[in-house]
Amino acid sequence: MIFIAHGFDVHLYDIKEEQVDEAMKWINDHVTKLEHDKCLRGQLSAVKQLTHVHKARTMAECLDGAVHVQECVFEDLDLKRKVFHEIDQICSDNVVLCSSSSCFLPSKLFEGLKHNSQMIVGHPVNPPYFVPLVEIVPSKWTSQAVIDRTRALLDKVGQKPVTLKKEIEGFIVNRIQYAILNECYRLIDSDVISVADVDKVMTHGLGMRYAFMGPWETAHLNANGMREYFDKYAKGIHDVSMTFGPVPIMEGPTADLIVKEMSQAIPLERLEQRRKWRDERLVELASLKHKASK
């Protein structure tokens, strides 16, 4: 949907043909609804955008003439390597081969493949249509031209790419996310705060600022610049951080408590309804951020 919004032809392939049929119906329904809700990305109408989605019946048909491939199978290292091995046998020498992996290091994904200089991770954040960040993670084999092409393409279709200078476990989004989850877990495990209240800390506190600025700009504005911030708060940050304790394993009574409270707050049968609510709020936030950036 992101690529067709900007007039790119997209060819979808899956080993289960019915998956592509379901995807194309889903795309049709959502693009049409987004246009009705005046939230459709790009300058093309829904009807025009949908002419750019095509069903491929074979891997070779899907790759024929492609300039960018985005692999989106689920997070299974062996499966992803199998897919890239198949692609490696038939792809051209000038196509960018990109994985959506959220955690596997490129060096593990692409080791031993003859086209690995063309291979890179481009990890989107869910749901990518409304949350535009993409982590670009090269391996030691990835050429600079492929890094530059991937970033330029993502910029062109309205995403917000960040480029890692080198690969690292968990990339950036998940490393920061895990640090937050770990401390939230420790605070609940230590009976300092409730599950509901720790979520409020983000939704009514930190999250409101972080929706528009990162942690460094937040700090910069909370003092007379970063130098003063470090002078005033660096020692306190260090001292508090030293009390954090070991990284928790999220199992046992505390995990059971969090599962119970979250299941009560949002029962499993309401997850899809809540995801829809989330997406609608993200559309509103994206619109507000767009207006604020002008």
What does this structure look like?
With 294 residues, this protein is an alpha/beta fold. The protein folds into three domains: 1-57, no CATH class; 61-171, 3-Layer(aba) Sandwich (Rossmann fold), CATH 3.40.50; 173-213 and 247-292, N-(1-d-carboxylethyl)-l-norvaline Dehydrogenase, domain 2 (Orthogonal Bundle), CATH 1.10.1040.10. Helix content is 52%, strand content 10%. The protein is globular and about 55 Å long. The two termini are 25 Å apart. The relative contact order is 0.07.
Give a quick rundown of the structure.
With 294 residues, the chain is α/β, with parallel strands linked by helices. The chain has three domains: 1-57, no CATH class; 61-171, 3-Layer(aba) Sandwich (Rossmann fold), CATH 3.40.50; 173-213 and 247-292, N-(1-d-carboxylethyl)-l-norvaline Dehydrogenase, domain 2 (Orthogonal Bundle). Helix content is 52%, strand content 10%.
What is the secondary structure topology, with strand pairs?
Layout: E1 10-12, H1 17-36, H2 46-50, E2 53-55, H3 59-63, E3 68-71, H4 77-90, E4 96-99, H5 106-110, E5 119-124, E6 133-138, H6 144-156, E7 160-163, H7 173-189, H8 195-210, H9 215-221, H10 226-241, H11 253-265, H12 271-292
Parallel strand pairs: 1-2, 3-4, 4-5, 6-7
Antiparallel strand pairs: 5-6
Helix pairs in contact: 9-10
